[in-house]
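just leaving the lab so this will be short. what follows is a protein written twice so to speak, once as letters and once as structure tokens for the fold. can you read through it and tell me how you think this chain folds. anything you notice is useful, everything is just below:
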Amino acid sequence: MVLATNLGFPRIGAQRELKKATESYWKGKISREELLSTGRELRMRHWTMQRDAGLDMIPCNDFSFYDQMLDTACLVGAVPARYGFAGDTVDIDTYFAMARGNDKAPAMEMTKWFDTNYHYIVPEFEEGQEFRLASTKLFDECKEALDAGIPVRPVLIGPMTFLLLGKNRGAGSRVELLDKLLPVYAEILKRLEDTGVRWVQIDEPCLVLDLENHYLEGYRKAYAALAKAAPDLKLLLTTYFEGIELERNIDVAVTLPVAGIHADLTRGSDLFFTEMLAKVPDGVVLSLGVVDGRNIWKNDLSASLDKVERAVQTLGQDRVWVGPGCSMMHAPVDLNQETALDPQIKSWMAFARQKLGEIVTLTKGANEGRGKVSGELAASDEVVKDRASSVRTHDEVVRARAAKVDEAMLSRKSAFPQRRKAQQDALHLPDYPTTSIGSFPQTQEIRKARAAFKKGELSGADYDAAMKAEIESVVRFQEKIGMDVLVHGEPERNDMVEYFGEQLEGFTFTKHGWVQSYGSRYVKPPVIFGDVSRPTPMTVEWSKYAQSLTKLPMKGMLTGPITILQWSFVRDDQPRSQTCQQIALAIRDEVVDLEAAGIHVIQIDEPAIREGLPLRRADWDAYLKWAVDSFRLSAAGVQDSTQIHTHMCYAEFNDIIDSIGAMDADVISIETSRSQMELLDAFVTYHYPNEIGPGVYDIHSPRIPSKEDMVDLLDKARKVLQPWQIWVNPDCGLKTRGWAEVEPALEHMVEAARDMRQKEKSAAA
């Protein structure tokens, strides 16, 4: 019979219990045992929920206190030497030090998990790297579930994906480490086999990427070894976020000695599905990812059941499973908590808990026939029809304006050299100008005031007064330490996307729709359900007020169209490029209004442009064309003397540097401190024509960098950039840090910029 299964469930808790516990532990407010107890309670709650929903097989080890790649690094003993780990098993404090850094060592690098907004900790492989079993988490959690009678399937990041997504700090390539890593994986599988589990889910999402031949040989080698390690254990080779690459990877994947293969049909093409049905070997299970684990729209059950029935007809019931395309960790937990959502829009949605029901319905339909689920199918068909015909999703004025966008609207009036001269005449900035990315610490007082205002407990006038007082405090601090271009600190803003979405047409919002971005950083993405427009200015009054407090340049802060798109739950009934263009027109209106209000430095953040890049290179050009055009459309409506900034963080974008140049921002700021300026490697061969701020302060770590740390990073930047090109700024916004950290760090940053100016003056003498 067809089985209902899952690949992973949100670990955060419906009330964000995991966030509260981990942050309390970091602050010393709860004990280690209290933290671990919260983890046990969440795991049991989620396992029970999935069992009660009717799943036949439930994942375990999908829970993490921070990140699954970090968990795997600890599991195989890949702990960098700087953390001083010398024990048998990695303790929780070493684990968190690797993720967050401490007074003795900086954090490990962090970057995006494929094309999602989730960040993983990048494994580091040092010179002479050895591996050994150094964590019992996997086995402990498996035993917890089995003792409770939960039919679990342990989840393990596959050896090739682990190596390919890591960074080798020593000699040789990452795949050369496979011989050292495989004995540890063999030991892991043998121990799992001894616990009594029948299946193990091995996640190898790298199989959807364009892979070189020696990596494919690595897959063959790895799985030949794993099949021998625990012959009675069945392996589910799990891929997601795209279909398995068809030119070469699929022929390797279907010949690996595994008992099942998972295919993401929510992202993979129909051609990929056809190829899988034709090529999956006799006796091998095909797990069908037909429920979207990354978005919040209800499944089209009739269309999905068509695919399941097609697979059953080809392979037979015993070789077909039904599940989500990927782990549901990218979806909110439970729609039932959303009591304030518009009823019609809510009727179109499904969160993780509701998606379990969709999986079970599809499985029942495949096993017992459509007649047994006719009511569910009819309700689903009605939702599809309702969304397609609703006047709330279509605005003819917005569509008519978008149809008139032409090439002239995508370009600034003059080329950068002419713009730079006009901007220097207007702004009078020194070499190595200092600024910050935008937000300043969001204190408890700020959050309380915002919450009270939303609840109606604080009047609009009192709220404005509180926010203006905070803005003035931030401005005076920046003036005091000698910053060159100021920001207002964004005390009035919650999330950098949610804040704008709340003021745009075509968006709606949840109260409890949280998803994990990294560690204890959770976001509540807006929902784009219809055509997007800007009814009124969104930031102008706050920026005008901040500029009125100082004679120094005040930077207006906006989130760019690609990032608003990527960090929202996006409508799936039209091309993403069309939605992005609509957002770009709305941001363009805001940029023009800011300039008219006297703001002549405007930052349009685009940290998600690399994140949105398709996983296949063949699809890159089309995406980069509409993404770059959307940014340019948002920015190009101003005069030459207005300086346009953009910001990008925690993404490998060296391979799209030409497109970043094509965005034609006057200044770009990027994350570089965790990677020790590694991201500037691209500038050795690509002579970036405009100005750039390589981040010198890692704001995701509690560690306060010294002036000397920052000067060292700026010296590295100076080797590939000219002094007039280099801005000095943190990696990212400061909202998650406390003032006790921010004040000394920014003081050191300003001092570092002064040192660099003095160096240049001495060198020229």
Q: What stands out?
A: The chain has 27 helices and 21 strands. The chain has a mean pLDDT of 94. The radius of gyration is 26 Å. The first strand starts at residue 3 and ends at 4.
